[in-house]
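Researcher: Good morning. I'm working through a list of sequences from a screen, and I'd like to move beyond sequence-only analysis. For each chain I'm collecting a predicted structure so we can compare shapes side by side. This is the next one on the list. No need for commentary yet; just the structure.
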Amino acid sequence: MKRLFILLLLASFTTYAQQKPAPGNKKAIIVLTYDDAIMSQLNVAIPQLDSAHLKGTFFLTGNITPQALPRWRAAFNHGHELANHTLYHPCLLTNVKGNPVNNSANYTVYGILREIGMMNNFLYAIDGASTHTYAYPCTEGKVGGVDYVDSLRKSGLVKYARMGGDQNAIVTDYSKLDPLLVPSWAVVGNYTGNDLIAFVKKVQASGGMGVFMFHGVGGDYLVTSAQAHRELLKYLSEHRDEVWVTTFKQAMEYVSKK
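Model: Good morning. Structure tokens for this chain:
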């Protein structure tokens, strides 16, 4: 009888461990990501994150100036993640405005993989990290009309990659999550702090993971106001006993084990 009780207890513990949404007693995971290596992130987002003692993931492109480079290195040394967003940020120009040279319609799979590999080398020169996560420019998984996700998978250049999505982009079943197609909420529009916090509350209620995608914070383009961002961080800081706020790489390493 005692042996049966112990076996049942172990089975219950194993089931609990497998279903545990976040480390410790936390009930949800939130990841704050920022695209394009723009100055408002250095001037506004990172100081706000540091003040709240929270970490973010910054998907950088190759347009970093010599003046900004040491500031990105300092951000990494302070615990933020620097990640890969390609050298030139290719996009379909039918969807956005941009340099015709960087029109993803004219790219090949070989070309985009080479660019991702070169950006990995660039990031290594900044942070010395051997691996980096990735975010698809303009959330496009195709170049030249060809899907390159599986080619990226086979290349071994990255293990984890972030895609786009909306306010329903909440991961609740880690076993079904493709690590190269992780959804996120692309925050584009005049959202308030309450709007951003509402997304976090949905993630908390689901017991899963939610990923924010920001661009400008208090400036630049696709702007989230500095006030809204600050209010979000305040809520996350006040609920750190329930919500694990971590980098994209750390979150994916955790959920992949699950």
